[in-house]
Please model this.
Amino acid sequence: MQFSASPWRGASRLVAVAVFGTACVATAQVPTKNPLLIRSKADSSPEVSPKLTAQQKLGLKLLQVLQSEAATLQPNMRAFVLWQASRGYEKVDLTRSNSLLKEALTASQAIESPEESLKECAEPAFCGPRHWLQEQILRDMIRQSKQSAPIEQFLETSEPEFRRLLSSQLLERYIGEKNFDRARELVNRVADAQGSFPYDDATHLIEALPAEREGDRQAILSQALDSFTQHRQELYPGWDDVATMVLRFWQDLPAPLVLQAIDQILDRAKDADAVQRNSGEQALRVGMSAKKGDAYFDSAYQFRVFQFMPVLEQLDQSRAESLRRENNDVRAALERYPHGLNSPSAVSAGHESPGILSIGAFGRDYSPEAAAEQANFELGRQQERILSEAEKDPKQAILAALALPLASPVLLEYNPRASILKAVARTAVGKNAAVAREALQEMRKLVDPMPARSQAQMLEDLPDLYLRLGDEEDARKMLDQLVAVATKLYQTDADSSDPNQAFKVWWPSSNLWWHCLAIAGKLNPSPAEQIIEGIQDDEIKAFERVTFANSLLGAATARFSIIEKHKRGVTAFIR
Model:
């Protein structure tokens, strides 16, 4: 299974997947001793229930009914309903919420999964609902639980890929508790388990350490450098690597340590170039694409020089000048990015930012697909400029948006013009209501000819935008239109000749109904019950009722990945 993903960490990305063959089905056995099912003293302590409103009481009654009905559902849907019900209880009965999380985890272990290991799939969602549900449930457990030991014990018995998946979440918990010793232990365990250093997690930890733990900062960076030295396969730059750590913290560290790190990284870049020359393969371009333009080089060494030039100028000016003279391409790139990767449009606080479109080593591809990708980068820059203009002159931004193409060079169903008009409206909604309405009106003209999936993407924000404009009438009209689109999507999902084989929670129709119910909860009177009654699928009805109940309780409504598995293959929008 292969997929392509956007470079933005944590952001939504469109994934196209080809399906090759059929995987066998294995049944997961429920372990006899599950540390998360052992009731702790912390779990049994009484919770003080807040005084409930009539709306919240209704939400709780609905959840109680749903919990009873969940016993009749298949394990995947039962686990999902119980997990979501736990979120509804979170604000009013934390003990019950924790109990439901444990029930949901137990139900998830009975789900049949075509892949037994996360090694077999690129994302938990691609492994099927079991791995994905367990990840989501455990994330909530880590966030809620008063004791982390049972969770750690469960993770110790899980496969290494699963532990790595949740390590960042557990690290954030330790950092929030200011338990920095446990956080350091976790970083060390992850490094030992995966055979390479977790640079991103370590960066978060260093950022959180108080001033009096300066020694820990230096020790963690030294550990990262030692790992980098040992793992010779780390040849090329990436989003989160040792160079990112050095760039982020060099001002807080002793100059000799920083210069030593730079020397090691430059030496490794020379090794990468030698490997590439001796491989006989096509030459690589190493660098980045960002809002201001491209900064690509013919060698990893040149890119690393460009990357560290601003630091060298501060710590070793004579060496910086020498490197500038030796590398013409570096000099040209620094004219566009005077501060290298520390330019505001390139990197913020040492992490990736929307300013960067891609970073790493790439083949010199002159195919039509590569040309389309480059055209897409240029379109992205144009869109960024329009959005920047919208902050200053939203009226002019509308005119610029109307000049954008109606289709993307890469994603044919994506309409750049409609998308940016909506973004301009979002920017103007609190500043200039007339401009926001004009942008929405222009956008709506473009939606009708679109296929249902594109209509869903374009229209889903409009009810909220109209509510922010104080226009409930148009908000209801947009909600009615979205419900109609969800019905169209369901016809495709449930098509008996080629049904969507993905977990129903991930169906495009389910996602859109889910969103419609979240909007309906903001309207008075709410049309939520009518929307639910209009759904013909009993399983989808069950978890859509959870959304309604949670909205009555004031619980946040999550959005889920959208996955379609048809005969033609798999497409996914991973959130």
Q: What stands out?
A: Residues 255-279 form the longest helix (25 residues). Residues 379-574 form a domain with the Serine Threonine Protein Phosphatase 5, Tetratricopeptide repeat fold (CATH 1.25.40). Strands lie at 13-17, 284-290, 293-297, 347-348, 351-352, 356-363, 562-566, 569-574. Confidence is low (pLDDT under 50) at residues 1-48, 343-354.
